[in-house]
Design a protein that fits this description.
Blueprint (H helix, E strand, L loop, with lengths): L2 E10 L2 E10 L3 E8 L2 E4 H33 L19 H15 L8 E6 L5 H18 L10 H4 L4 E5 H10 L8 H9 L3 E7 L6 H14 L5 E5 L3 H17 L2 E6 L4 H4 L11
Parallel strand pairs: 5-8, 5-9, 6-7, 7-8
Antiparallel strand pairs: 1-2, 2-3, 3-4
Helix pairs in contact: 2-3, 5-6, 6-7, 7-8
This protein binds adenosine-5'-triphosphate, magnesium ion and zinc ion (ZN).
Zinc ion binds next to helix 1.
């Protein structure tokens, strides 16, 4: 290390701090700092601390992504259940599917308390659950953008708690009943938790959930979310069936701000079905 000149010198008790002009292998003639005989190039120190900071932020980002994925899983949303990029377009409906998916993507990226409710109609296997899941994933990813960079600066538990839940209406009934007689979290508390989600997706409405009490519970959830937050529904029923299922009060509220999408194409499951007969000659 070739010192060219001393720029300043501070003595604090036994500590000596000097600013020097010296030769750095990388930055050539530049400012150095000497503390108790140890000399460092200021620019090299700056670069080093920036690199460490970038690495720390990258690690924080990865940790936050893990927290996000875990939260999504616990809320019934999973990358395995499909995202928009995994959608395979099927002729002769490819153009129609494309137009609908563009609209859904747009919806998923700006979910807020004024967003319309959304009902996805269609026969079994048409991809309704996959599309609903894709909307949920995008919504989580949008929320992730407003997180602070540093892992320690937010309460990860709270942050995603009410982002989005996707649950079948059958499971809502099961879960609600599990809370009967539970004094820590009653059925009412459970419903309130569901209602608190920024986006609530009720999947498979009308499948195995036909008891009056179950229908009333769903109607109550839809009613409670009216004008507060959007509700998404997927169902095999048609619009009249849905209306009858929900009853006048809930339907009236749902339809006040409602986007409807119908998946009127054949079942993906049927299209990709591979049925073999056991015992048949190979
Ligand atoms: N266009 C598609 N491209 C790729 N995979 C698809 C497509 N449509 C559906 N799938 C896959 O087919 C399976 C059935 O789709 P999904 O469960 O979303 O149908 P659904 O309309 O919700 O049916 P159901 O009414 O029975 O609940 C899933 O594994 C899904 O990922
Ligand atoms: Mg489904
Ligand atoms: Zn240097």
């Amino acid at each position: 290390m070739k010192v060219i000149e001393e720029l300043s010198r501070i003595e604090l008790g036994t500590m000596i701090i000097r600013e020097l002009m010296a030769e750095c292998d990388i930055h050539h003639k530049t400012k150095h700092r000497e503390i108790n005989g140890h000399i460092d190039c200021c620019q090299c120190s700056e670069d080093k601390s920036q690199l460490a900071n970038t690495r720390r932020l990258e690690t924080d980002k990865a940790r936050m992504r893990v927290a996000l994925v875990n939260k999504m899983k616990s809320k019934g949303v999973s990358a395995n259940m499909g995202c928009f990029s995994a959608w395979q377009y099927n002729e002769p409906k490819a153009a129609e599917q494309h137009a609908k998916i563009i609209q859904l993507q747009k919806y998923s990226k700006s979910v807020n308390s004024c967003s319309p409710n959304l009902v996805i109609f269609g026969r079994t296997g048409a991809g309704k659950t996959m599309l609903a899941n894709a909307v949920a994933i995008n919504h989580y990813l949008e929320e992730e953008k407003s997180l602070p960079d540093e892992f320690n600066s937010y309460n990860q538990q709270d942050f995603y708690d009410h982002t989005c839940e996707m649950i079948t209406s059958f499971d809502i009934a099961v879960q609600a009943k599990l809370h009967w007689g539970n004094y820590q979290m009653s059925e009412h508390d459970y419903i309130k938790e569901l209602v608190a989600n920024k986006l609530l997706i009720i999947d498979d409405l009308g499948a195995g959930d036909g008891y009056i009490k179950d229908r009333e519970r769903i109607a109550q959830i839809v009613t409670l979310r009216h004008k507060r937050a959007p509700t998404m529904i997927t169902t095999n029923m048609d619009i009249n069936g849905l209306r009858e299922y929900l009853g006048d009060r809930a339907w009236d509220r749902l339809q006040q701000n409602l986007l409807v999408m119908s998946c009127d194409w054949e079942s993906y499951r049927a299209k990709t079905a591979d049925i073999r007969i056991v015992g048949a000659a190979e």
